[in-house]
Description:
This protein is of the alpha+beta class. It is built from 11 helices and 17 strands. The C terminus is likely disordered.
Amino acid sequence: MEEIAALERALRRAAPHTLPEVVRAALAERYGAGQVTLRMADYAMRSLQDVEAPAWVTEPVEPVPVHGSPQGRAFGSQEPYVLGDPETGPVAVHLPVTIRGDRLGVLSVELPRHTDLRSTLPELQQVCDALGHEILVAERDTDVYVLARRATRLTLAAEMQWQLLPGRSCTRPEFALGAQLEPAYAVFGDNYDWSVSSDHLTLTVANGMGEGIDAALLTNLAVNALRNARRAGLDLAGQATLADQAVYAQYRGRAHVSVLLLRFSLSTGEVEAVDAGSPRLWRLRDRTVEACPFDAQLPLGMFEDTVYTPEHFTVLPGDRLLFASDGVYDAVSGSGESYGERALPRALTATRLLPPTQVPSAVLRALSEHHGEPPLDDDALVVCLDWYGRGRPDGAGAAG
């Protein structure tokens, strides 16, 4: 539609920090919209933070919780959520802002009485899609949207780790995945990375030793070495070898990084894996949870000239894979039971009906209850991957 195309052009021409203003003006002109608010999900995925209040709003807009709010319902379900009846009065519409499966936030729009929601909602979702694309581009030039994600200040180590991540979720026809780090505002050593081509998904889950800046620097070196090797066309074992050499050259064995590397064939579900340390994998298949052990190999950087050998397994449509760092499965309860013994498989079973984007946060909440007080003394990383395979007749898992 010409109006949507015109808005997309206006967003591309706008100054990066003015995107909410452009959307607000366009929706007011086309739909008679009243208040329009853009909220971004915070790093801990617990609240939706206002990006920018219009000039006529004198009081700051309070964050709303992801759980238990209308905005959070739209964010969690990834579907528009409407409050009110357009036949009797104005309505509030909350719409997810998501790009390629990465959930950014929610756009809330107040629409006047007698609005035809059947035609308006699809158009508003197109607006949100265009806005999501432009936010990702705008973040190269402005801190506005990054700042909106912060419920509190990040440590420097956490700042480095979050800037290193590819996103928090990704969706393709063949798979969907979600990931979460805790403590979100003070994480230092755990990390994940992924890359998707026409034929493969490459996924890495990393756990760098140490704390604070030292751990963040170590993990940054390892992740960028793995990316450099992947982009040079090396196979999975070659990627591990190059990253191992890079870490050893810098630290001479004083520090190392535990990494689980996986390469999925999108057409067959065949997986190549290199287990170079502590991150672990569980599989939920037909309501049965099983740990997936690998032949343990040396972490990256522990010794010079380590040789890595890949292993192979196959995922089937309907499989759910859960990856966790040692801060998750080694966390102990008051009675001394580690989370990975029984509680983690129970949590994976209990969350089987949730989409993969919501599973990591749910598992980490269960981890917090299992561990109790005091807070965890190590990073905790959870990545959830749902495998659909190619050729699904119902089209489920299509990219948003």
